[in-house]
Design goal:
Layout (H helix, E strand, L loop, with lengths): L6 E9 L3 H15 L9 E5 L13 E2 L2 H6 L12 E2 L2 E7 L4 E3 L13 E2 L2 H13 L5 E3 L3 E7 L2 E7 L2 E3 L5 E6 L3 E9 L6 H9 L12 E10 L9 E7 L8 E7 L4 E9 L9 H8 L3 H7 L3 E11 L10 E2 L2 E3 L15 H21 L4 H12 L2 H8 L3 H4 L4 H11 L23 H8 L18 H6 L13 E3 L2 H5 L1 H5 L4 H4 L5 E5 L7 E5 L9 H5 L5 E3 L14
Parallel strand pairs: 1-2, 1-13, 2-8, 5-15, 13-20
Antiparallel strand pairs: 3-7, 4-7, 5-6, 9-10, 10-13, 11-12, 14-17, 14-18, 15-16, 16-17, 19-20, 21-24, 22-23
């Protein structure tokens, strides 16, 4: 029996109340208010988190360029800034030593930048948008992008009140059909609707390189006074990542007694036992980090994927009835590992293009092409273009990457090559036999003794993320073929999902009825919505979809 669904009509549907989506709404309202010839459109902002900022996670050192352009008096309005950057340092780490680099590369100069909690910053942006009279519907998640005749006409929201088998419970509420003149996807990294858009509209990624990702794992620590100065920024490279793989760490002093510490791991790793969470915990054993953290208290945890491919991996930004902003469109500078200011700028550019489309009441791709044109003529394009080959420089390992990146600073980002061919991250993973042949050893992951006071296992960390999901609902980690997991993936790769997931969603448990004696057990309620599984699964049988609205992590001060 076909479900009867409520139809909601709106002019503009913005999916995701992060910096990009909120900047878009704010700037558009500002433009309309200054022009009597244009009526204020009806704007519907959907946010899958329980409140604005609950799913916002980043390092984060923010370049204020974006927010200063959007809201010039942002300081006077009380924007939550933890600390202005006071110092930068860069260390090369080996397992037992550290070398402080005597100079800081220009890309890591953070003078004039701010350490922020993206969770609090996004919440503040939400308040500025609501002050413009625009409503934000937190806890409302999109499940399907509606594409008719090659044109995006809206989306369907998630059905609520289903049991694990998808049967309707007594509290069942069918998702609504949101019909919109234009739908803007600002849903973060590897969003489920964005993935549907790429699959339904191939031209969005035509002639683009596949996006490459990192998984960043992060904790907030309260530490004894006197170990850091507010605004102190530390970046590291080297250990525990092998030289053949991409990644690095950070520590940002939010105050004299509170720090953000984290580690990023490339998902194009050849190692089928690649474990971002394990490497992060291992990173904390290095004296550079341990001397600061030990004796402190871990307060919060989070993890997310980062779109790190750069300019050549960005999709086409528009289509009939569709625009892409922020992380959904790859607006992140891999050289600086910064994206907040670029996400805000993408929202500004989209708003300006939308304003012109409103004047004409035309939301075709010909009309929305102004968004792409605006980007190509903006400082955002200039910055992205200068870092266009940075991630690709490290394809051959750390040393070639450092050489290439040094040359790129002298050649406006080109280096020794232009637009180097790359592949989707999951294609870089070697099976166990191939890994042995290439490296002469077994795939390994960090083996640590977790005391859950300084070094935390995955479940203990997940608890500190505030993650909550209703147990009785369909899994939002959809596996299309469990036989793959129990047979060829187990035999060839050793089920890497149990390692790369930083939240212990995937476990292999004993089951004599299965060919390898193990069965995949899912615990979706642990999921922190990082999207690593959707990206790194070697057979691409795992698909992340939105759970019921309002569920997932509840990031505080992150």
């Amino acid at each position: 029996m076909e479900i009867e669904r409520e139809i909601l009509e709106t002019d503009i549907a913005i999916v995701g109340a992060g910096p990009a989506g909120l900047a878009l709404a704010y700037r558009l309202a500002e433009l309309v208010a200054k022009d009597d010839s244009v009526e204020m459109p009806e704007i519907l902002i959907l946010e899958k988190g329980g409140y604005v900022g609950s799913h916002s996670l980043s390092g984060a050192v923010m370049d204020p360029k974006g927010i200063a352009e959007l809201i010039p008096d942002f300081k006077e309005r009380g924007v939550p800034l933890e600390a202005e950057v006071t110092s930068d340092s860069l260390y090369y780490l080996s397992e037992n030593r550290s070398i402080k680099v005597p100079f800081t590369p220009p890309s890591l100069h953070n003078h004039g930048n701010y350490i922020v909690s993206l969770n609090k910053f996004t919440g503040w942006m939400g308040e500025q948008v609501e002050a413009k009279g625009i409503d934000i519907y937190a806890g409302l998640a999109g499940s399907h992008l509606i594409v008719e005749g090659g044109k995006v006409t809206g989306l369907q929201t998630v059905d609520m009140g289903l049991d694990k088998e998808g049967n309707q419970k007594t509290n069942f509420e069918p998702g609504s059909i949101v019909q919109a003149k234009v739908t803007i996807l600002c849903e973060g990294v590897r969003g489920s609707l964005t993935r549907q858009a790429f699959e339904s509209i191939p031209e969005l990624m035509a002639d683009r390189l596949p996006q490459n990702y990192l998984t960043g794992v992060k904790e907030i620590w309260e530490i004894p006074e006197g170990r850091v100065k507010a605004g102190q920024v530390i970046h590291t490279f080297g250990w525990p990542q092998p030289h053949s793989e991409y990644g690095g760490g950070w520590m940002y002093a939010m105050s004299e007694t509170m720090v953000s510490v984290g580690y990023t791991v490339g998902l194009n790793s050849p190692n089928p036992a690649n474990d971002p969470h394990g490497k992060f915990q291992q990173y904390k054993t290095h004296t550079v980090i341990k001397d600061i953290l030990q004796g402190g208290t871990m307060l919060h945890y989070g993890a997310k994927a980062i779109p790190d491919g750069g300019y050549y991996c960005m999709p086409k930004l528009y289509h009939d009835g569709l625009m892409l902003c922020g992380d959904s469109a790859g607006f992140l500078n891999p050289l600086r590992l910064k994206g907040i200011h670029l996400g805000i700028k993408s929202g500004i550019l989209a708003a300006e293009a939308l304003f012109e489309a409103l004047k004409k009441d035309d939301f075709s791709k010909e009309s929305l092409a102004g968004y792409q044109e605006g980007f190509e003529n903006s400082w955002a394009k200039e910055e992205m273009y200068q870092s266009r080959n940075f991630h690709a420089s490290f394809k051959g390992g750390l040393i070639p990457g450092l050489i290439h990146s040094a040359i790129q600073t002298l050649t406006n980002g080109k280096g020794l090559f232009e637009r180097r061919v790359n592949y989707a991250d999951h294609e870089s993973m070697l099976n166990i036999r191939e890994y042995r042949q290439r490296f002469g050893l077994e795939p390994e992951r960090p083996t640590l003794k977790y005391d859950n006071e300084y070094l935390f296992d995955k479940l203990s960390d997940v608890y500190k993320s505030g993650t909550q999901h209703e147990e009785e609902q369909p899994s939002h980690l959809v596996i299309s073929d469990y036989d793959v997991c129990h047979t060829i993936c187990a035999e060839e790769f050793g089920n890497p999902c149990q390692y790369f997931c930083p939240a212990q969603v995937y476990e292999m448990v004993d089951d004599e009825t299965k060919p390898q004696g193990k069965r995949l057990q899912l615990t979706p309620s642990n999921c922190v919505h990082c999207k690593t599984c959707d990206i790194a699964d070697p057979y691409q049988v795992i698909r992340w979809v939105t759970p019921q609205g309002g569920e997932g992590p509840n990031y505080t001060n992150m």
